[in-house]
Give the backbone structure.
Amino acid sequence: MDLLRPKRKVTMKEPFQAAFSMKEPVTYTFVENDIEVSKEIVKLFESVPKGKFQAEIIRNKGHLTTENIQDYHNFQGLINHCANNAESVNRQLRDFILVISRPEDQQLIMDKTFKELKGIFSNFFHTCPAVREQEKYNTTKKRKVFTKTLEDYISDRNIYTHGCLLLRDADRVFILEIIEEKRTIQVEVSIIILQSFLEITELLRVFLSEVRRLVTTI
C-alpha cells in the first residue's frame, strides 16, 4: 500500500515577517440538474520579500478562463469523492469494531471518531491469533504496513473533508488550507494524489473485509 500524500508547503506567516499571502474570492455560476448554482474560486497570492519588513504580492496578469473554472470545479468534485469514500471506510471500520466489541460497549463505539476507531482496530489487529497466523500478517512489520496506511489515510481524509480549496494564482496549482493545532497550514494537492487516495480506499475496503472474515469464521 503506497499512499501518495498531500505536500505540505506553507505555514501561514503574519505580515511583517517579510512574507505573507492574501486570498481573493472570485464568483462563478454553473447549471447542474437545471439549477443555477453560484460558487467561489478562492485565488491565492503569495509574496516575495522586499527588504526586512516589506514584501510584494506576486500576481498573474492573466484572468480566469472557462477552462480554469471547469478545472477548479472538477477538482473540487474529486475532493468530495475522496471525503465521501473515506466516510464509507469509516462506517465499515465502525461496523467491524461493533462485531468484536462487547454489547455494553457498543454505544461508546458509536461515539468514537475515525482516528479513535483506528486505534481500537490496531490493538485488535496486532494481537488477534486468527490474524497473526496468516502469512501476510504474521510479523509486526507486515501488519504495520496496513495500520500505518490506515493512519495516513485518516489524516489525509481530514484534510479533504475540512480543507478550503485555493487556486494559487501564479502557477495555477491547487492548495488546500486547513487549521491544524491552532495553525493555518497549506498543502499542495494534485489529481495524481487524489487518485492514489481513491485507489487506497478500495484496498482498505478489501483489507477490512478480509480481516472481518477471518474473525467471524473462528
